[in-house]
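Aim 2 progress update. The chain analyzed this quarter is reproduced below.
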Amino acid sequence: MSAPFGRRAATVTTREQHGAYVVIRCHDATGPKPQAGQFYMLRSAERWGGGEAERPFLPRAFSVLRARGCELHFLVEEVGPGTKRLCELEPGDELLLVGPLGNGFTAPRDDREPLLVGGGVGIAPLAIWQDQFRAGGTEPKVLLGFRDRARAAGAALLSAPAIATDDGSVGHHGLITDLLEAELDERAERLELYACGPPAMLEAVRTACTALGVPAQLALESGMACGFGACFGCVVPTVDGYIRLCVDGPVLKAHQLQSALVAGAGH
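Predicted structure tokens:
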């Protein structure tokens, strides 16, 4: 379910540090319940701008990390002035948000086993998806990849993941696709994949799954300005033509994509 037009205020309840990442929890009493893979447009209620004139920043798109009752969780990494401001929020501060928006993940087909694959801040939609599977009595296997130990601290947000790091500081020394290859070699015919992460990772997942005929759903990361399809800032090409990722995605089936490298720099 998607939210109506218009921002609403949500009070920050908790700020947690997980290595290089910050988890912001906020109380959203009036918004619809999100589904895994949906996203929100976020901005702080105060000091949302840069320069001497405090020129307003555009809101930032974030996948929902977790939803518990009326509390929403978001995973943020400081990569610029907007995310820096969000990382500074403390309990009692207000977020202005719009959401949930877009299309999320759907259940596996043909009784296939879910396999969750995430990289960096792309672990966010996999956490709420794992929660939903576990609530239904399914324990999906999870593979997570990070650049280094500081970012691998985010793996604690999911249950019992296998971890790979580029520098070998935690878990497997190498790419997450190394762990994925082993899973596909062992049980490709039984799997349905769910993935979110950097474009290069998603393209590797898309290529591997397409070659083996494994169904895969990819949550693409892209910079978004409005979230409602009005600005056409997140248009991506598919085998059937161009789509607006914010309204037709962000979750797309792998076979729809010509390449997962077309997504933007992430959020």
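The CA atoms of residues 23 and 86 lie 10 Å apart. The helical segments are 81-87, 124-135, 149-152, 176-187, 199-212, 245-248. These observations will guide the mutagenesis experiments scheduled for the next reporting period.
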